[in-house]
Write the structure tokens for this entry.
Amino acid sequence: MQDIKIENLYKAYGEKQVLNNFSAVIEHGKISCIMAPSGAGKTTLLRILMGMEKADRGKITGLENLKIRAVFQEDRLCEELDAVSNIRLVNYKNNKKTVQDALCKMGLTDIENKPVSTLSGGMKRRVSILRALLSDFDVLFLDEPLKGLDMHTKQMVLNEMKNYFENKTIIMITHEKDEAEFFGAKVIGIEA
Amino acid sequence: MRRTIKLWAVLFWLLVWQVVSMMLNQQILLVSPVKVIIRLSELIITKDFWLAIVFSSTRIIGGFIIAVIVSCLFAALASKFKLIDELLSPFMLAIRSVPVASFIILALIWFSSKNLAILISFLMVMPVMYSNILTGICTIDSKMREMAKVFEISTIKQVRYIYVPHIFKYFESACAVCLGLCWKSGVAAEVIGMPDGSIGECLQQAKVYLDTPDLFAWTFVIVCISLFFERLFLRLLSKIKILLLRMD
């Protein structure tokens, strides 16, 4: 599979130029972390890569016909479904037992049959991460996935994520240098 | 906050009613609750009482169900095609604004009174139902749509697990309002149109003969049937919702 090439990307919202001639190469089967100050266009870049927004100018290659999945900045879960159903909704091939085991490894026990609307913010975050990890993906985009998690939970989730990241193309937005170091990720910066 | 009706409060107001009725001592003006219960016990053993309930219920609930189906269809189309929304907006506004009595009289000129309650119940329910369902569809979070697109969730699953649970909240509240509304308007239509063997006809007879016990007894029956259907329908909806959200 070829690398993802981003060439001379431009994006503006009205007068505000968000991406200005941005270029980068994202290696296939590797973990890349996009790090930049707030408002530098990290999420915009991710949205363009996911095909949710169009760039004003520029070219992206290497994402054609790939299964793209994501962990969004918000949880975006079906509030009335329980955690297992939310995860199985995006990949029905996962049986209940597999999902329940994966939830346990994320520290999510005793949440069976509870709608996610009743879970805490940190729990929802983990369900949202696991939904993406258990989905069948070629490329996974993560937009500040660990935001709002306490140190202990964050470490547990990071360890768990690593198991799913092997030989996968991962593009993660983060503000934390230690997260990039943990994965041994290539850091891509965006000039503000 | 869900407000529940306490038995002690009901008994208090029944007592007030009984005392006022005794003070007035004029059965035509205000019949006592005891007299109403006696009259009701006389009515429920007659065949005509039950036939009137079946006659009116089938028509009023029939009108309600037709309105639900048509509203769902119209709201789905209006959410998809702006032109349909624009086309239906003045029509819905007109139905909402025109007094129900005008519709009843017009309907009596056009059709027979037998099925009048179906039309009136339909007309009163449809705009409320349409507006609620359309709001439900239009307020579906675009972020959830994006999520569904990224994860390539099939349309059927999107409808079942994302759209329907969201729209259901709006639909349920519309049902709670409309089930009371369809009974009020349906019976009002029957009182004016007086179709043979209907609850409305019984109410009209009570008015003509100044039969206050009959009037109160029938009013009590209408309230009970209306509440019964409301509870039944809402319970049915919650069961349907549970079935829809079930993932095996």
Summary: Chain A touches chain B through 20 residues (CB under 8 Å). The mean pLDDT of chain A is 91. The beta strands of chain A are 4-13, 16-26, 31-35, 57-61, 68-71, 139-143, 169-173, 186-189. The two ends of chain A are 31 Å apart (CA to CA).
